[in-house]
Design brief:
This protein is mainly β. Helix content is 6%, strand content 58%. It has helices at residues 2-17, 64-69, 75-82, 155-158, 445-449; strands at 41-42, 50-51, 59-62, 86-88, 106-108, 111-112, 117-121, 124-125, 144-150, 165-171, 178-188, 192-203, 206-217, 226-238, 243-257, 267-285, 289-308, 326-346, 349-368, 373-394, 398-409, 413-427, 430-441, 462-475, 479-491, 494-499, 502-508, 512-526, 529-540, 550-560, 563-578, 582-598, 601-608, 627-635. A hairpin with a 2-residue loop joins strand 18 and strand 19 (349-368). The longest helix is centred in the first third of the chain and has 16 residues, at 2-17. The termini are far apart.
Length: 636
């Protein structure tokens, strides 16, 4: 804890102790706080619009103002700072990658890894059909209107892969008449470029929004270069006052290189991927009825060189000691539909019923240099589910929410998923919430059938029961905070065991218990100054990678004249890195400075890890020291 006292406490004192002294005049208003407000409207927890303080689940929200202020391209980088209890692994300056050696693993309350936190785009699942994992580089801030995070199981509404939580990217659309847009260019350390442009157009009942992004870097180590091209298109049409249509298309084209660990470098380990997603929806809204029919399909094509090692310590696959004579190839898909309808008979009282179906899977093979192929897998899995959720308000203060889902997986049969909770509204500014929810995850095709490093067709689904207790309080319109305590108990956790000569077996290793607290607070000192703090504590009876014991983030947002300065600090303590008893603790001091000479132009400088701290979130992959990026935003 020495690092905590020497670094975090002095910086926190500087950030928050100086708050009353910083007052400015004639400057633009700072955007309202967005992660703890009681009256924030959310949709991810019920699929209908409801105030955050009136539902029992624990939810964080990051609004467009915070996304605009960020210099990050990926939404996961923003969430890792803004949401307590959520952590994301990193390996380089920008980009997460895929396959072995990739980062971007997300955990919520210690539950993470492959497929345990579900990524959604407008409520539709986004994950690779064979490997079951999120494609972290496909989720970019320019596409998002806001981000909603369910910190705990979301399997009642979203089924498998939502065991630990849900991240829902609610996409942007043009809302103002006419043509509007924004362009950004950034350059900085390690020859890193970030270029983006987006534009929207609205006329009468029709709207369209599109964005393009290009990120590239040489990386902080040899053989760690990365590039990605992202594209997004959204169309919308209001048929009348009650019905509207929408359609999305998303593209991600990227290549990543993995240099291996410092102690065991790897050569020619790279991956190329193209991911595409299409979705369409017809939505209705009446005085008492609302619902939607949504269709989605996402697919990808991947080409991977598994690389080779110079004198590896163990002469066995996958540790090849010479260049590979094949490329790993895969094509996967994940598609389906969701249909639901809600009836609202009174304020904060409703019933929602829905059905959804998914088919996921794909084809994997080795393409040999001699022109032949070696088949690995060609399989799909069907899932079908129905659910019902009822919410009832009574006695003006109480709201009860309960639901049940029945999901059928063709490999595992039926899975019942209950959820229940209660909210007590003390007054307009405070509420208490308690909930029980079950989460589960069915094994993916890689775990069941792919032989690298091991597979096991007899794996059972993972399951978890979770209890949350939250208190939310606003003090006037200045101070807002949330305190959450949770208890999660799981079984059948899937993990890879190791023997004398490396990976031994992929098995259901047993049970785990996670307990902890989350805290988030926002203090709006003046129209020009805001302070934000979030903290999380996790205690588990097993070793969990991607899940620090302590996580703290403190941020000041201060404007004066045409200038804006945003210093912040992030502290991570007792992060288990795997590979024995390797842990890391570190503090990162960052600062963003922006100058806006006109309403249409903003110049900015973003400094990360300004104290040049040494740290890693994945064993053997040290992250860069100080990183400086500068750029310009232009609105039109």
């Amino acid at each position: 804890m020495t690092l905590f006292y020497r670094t975090i406490l002095p910086v926190s004192a500087l950030l928050f102790g100086s708050v009353p002294l910083l007052v400015a005049e004639n400057v633009a208003d700072i955007a309202a706080a967005d992660t703890v407000f009681l009256n924030e409207v959310v949709v991810s927890a019920t699929k209908t619009e409801v105030n955050r303080g009136e539902i029992p689940l624990t939810i964080s929200v990051v609004n467009r103002e915070k996304l605009d202020a960020s210099t990050e391209t990926g939404v996961l980088s923003v969430l890792s700072e803004q949401v307590p209890g959520l952590f994301v692994t990193e390996k380089g300056v920008t980009g997460y990658g895929i396959s072995d050696g990739s980062a971007g693993a997300v955990s919520i309350h210690g539950v993470g890894g492959v497929g345990r936190v579900l990524m959604l785009f407008d409520g539709q699942p986004m994950w690779a059909g064979i490997f079951g994992h999120n494609i972290a580089d496909a989720y970019v801030t320019s596409d998002a209107q806001k981000l909603e995070v369910i910190r705990g199981p979301g399997s009642l509404l979203y089924g498998s892969n939502a065991m630990g939580g849900v991240i829902n990217v609610i996409t942007r659309q043009a809302t103002a008449d006419g043509f509007h847009g924004k362009a950004r260019a950034m350059y900085g350390s390690f020859n890193t470029w970030k270029i983006a442009a987006n534009a929207g157009y609205k006329k009468d009942r029709f709207n369209v929004f599109a964005s393009l992004n290009r990120d590239q870097t040489d990386g902080q180590r040899a053989n760690s270069d990365f590039y990605i091209n992202n594209g997004f298109l959204k169309l919308g049409y209001e048929m009348d006052d009650h019905w509207n249509l929408s359609a999305n298309a998303i593209l991600a084209d990227f290549k990543t290189n993995d240099p291996g660990t410092i102690s065991l470098p790897i050569f020619d380990h790279w991956a190329e991927a193209i991911r595409m997603t299409y979705s369409a929806a017809i939505n209705n809204r009446y005085d008492n009825w609302s619902g939607s029919l949504q269709l989605f399909y996402n697919h990808g094509s991947h080409k991977i060189n598994d690389g080779w090692y110079n004198n590896p310590p163990v002469q066995m696959p996958p540790l090849a000691d010479q260049p590979r004579d094949y490329f790993f190839r895969s094509e996967d898909s994940h598609g389906g539909f969701a249909l639901y309808e809600s009836y609202h008979w009174a304020e904060n009282s409703s019933v929602t019923v829905g059905v959804d179906a998914k088919r996921w899977g794909g084809h994997a093979w080795n393409a040999n240099n001699d022109g032949t192929t070696s088949e690995i897998i060609d399989k799909t899995v069907d899932e079908l589910a129905a659910y019902a959720v009822i919410q009832q308000a009574f006695c003006e203060k109480w709201t009860v929410n309960a639901g049940l889902r029945l999901e059928n997986n063709e490999n595992y049969g039926n899975e019942w998923v209950p959820q229940a909770g209660v909210t007590y509204q003390l007054n307009d500014l405070a509420s208490f919430k308690a909930s029980f929810s079950k989460g589960f995850r069915s094994p993916n095709l890689k775990e069941l059938y792919l032989p690298f490093p091991k597979n096991n067709p007899d794996l059972k689904p993972e399951r978890m029961n979770n209890f949350d207790f939250s208190y939310l309080q606003s003090i006037g319109d200045k101070f807002h905070f949330e305190l959450t305590a949770y208890y999660a108990k799981g079984e059948n956790l899937i993990d890879l065991t190791f023997g004398q000569f490396g990976p031994d077996a992929l098995v259901n290793v047993g049970k785990f218990t996670n307990t902890g607290i989350d805290f988030a607070a926002t203090y709006v000192v003046s129209p020009t100054l805001r302070a934000v703090l979030n903290y999380s504590y996790l205690d588990s009876d097993v070793k969990l990678t991607t899940a620090p014991k302590h996580k703290l983030f403190a941020n000041l947002d201060y404007s004066f004249g045409k200038w804006k300065i945003e210093p912040n600090v992030q502290y991570i303590n007792d992060l288990y890195l795997g590979a024995g008893d390797n842990y890391d603790s570190y503090a990162l001091v960052n600062c963003k400075i922006a100058y806006q000479p006109t309403p249409a132009i903003r110049l900015f400088l973003d400094g990360k890890n300004l104290t040049d701290a040494s740290y890693q979130t994945y064993y053997g992959y040290p992250l860069p020291g100080a990183v400086i990026l500068g750029g310009i935003d232009v609105r039109f």
